[in-house]
Amino acid sequence: MNTAADFAAITSFVLELEKLKAVLRKNRPLGQTRFENTAEHSWQICLLAMSVLPHAAEPVDMGRVVQLLLVHDIPEIDAGDVNVYDATGRAAAEAKEEAGATRIFGLLPSATGAQMYALWREFTTGTSAEARYARAIDRMMPVLQNLNSAGQSWRENGIRIDQVTRMNHPKISGMFPTLWPLLEQQLQAAVTRGDLGPAGAE
Amino acid sequence: MNTAADFAAITSFVLELEKLKAVLRKNRPLGQTRFENTAEHSWQICLLAMSVLPHAAEPVDMGRVVQLLLVHDIPEIDAGDVNVYDATGRAAAEAKEEAGATRIFGLLPSATGAQMYALWREFTTGTSAEARYARAIDRMMPVLQNLNSAGQSWRENGIRIDQVTRMNHPKISGMFPTLWPLLEQQLQAAVTRGDLGPAGAE
């Protein structure tokens, strides 16, 4: 091991991560007018993951879940954030994210970079229980934010309840079957309040 | 388990965490003029932790290390961020952080809240190998940021090399004995460039 070369490579990688602090999402932190960035989002979903563990349908290794969540959005440094309800944008972003993962994790010493790339890949393909748990959490957080901000990003982007259900139900209800009905009730209440569009009203 | 009550408590907690996105530190993300917030800092140090594992002097459970890092600054929601070089401010913040930890983790269902509080306490007291690893990482990150930003927060706050060494050497060198000499060389170079104050020149 060449310690000096490895440390230089690690430094390049962590400084490259500064850029994720400038990748903006569609929601605004409660009480702030600016948009949320992907770095702080990545932190918050780890805490949500740690909080809802007693409600999971399957046992998971929480240390692995949070490591998946920590790396999962890093390729947005190259691909940008694409709204989950933007199907065309999502498809176009996939190749950019793959290239971004290769480039950014490639800044690290090779064994460490390969491990991080594998974590990113595991999240993206979603095969393990930990990846399915992490993917459910990534979807749950913005729903909770919107339910408690008068539907800020739903309103600003004209989102309807059938879109929210279609994109989130499959991922959330499998791992958190007792939580999804509670979310569904809250989504209906959000439609009643006018914070979320009614089904099919495009 | 009262699922609805627990989920409401979890929701209160994760929404309270939004406030950490508004707690500002002294350094500015590279390429941005704004200050870094504690939420995005908490994310970045987890990735640094995952990256330097091959250089650790002791074996650690990385899943635990990142969970310690994820929770360790949450009480700053109540206590604010205090610069590591501000000894008076640090002492005054300790009681506020203890009260903040009790309040904020107390928003969660009791068993989950107790687990998070225990993680915060473990980081703060620094007794386990994981806590010592996490504390070293928390110190290493701003040093790396300053070394690569022409000493931005060192310059803005009039920091000298003897302060940086005194505050960081004990925590970093124990867990990363081969990395500290590399940092020390870079600190000397920063003094030569004028990015960091020379020893003792108050």
UniProtKB/TrEMBL annotation, chains A, B:
GO MF, one term, reads:
hydrolase activity
All residue ranges annotated as the HD domain in the record: 17-180
Q: What are the UniProt keywords, alphabetically?
A: Hydrolase, Metal-binding
Pfam short name (any one): HD_3
Instruction: Tell me the domain of life.
Output: Bacteria
According to UniProt, the name of this protein is: Hydrolase
Q: What is the lineage of its organism?
A: Bacteria, Pseudomonadati, Pseudomonadota, Betaproteobacteria, Neisseriales
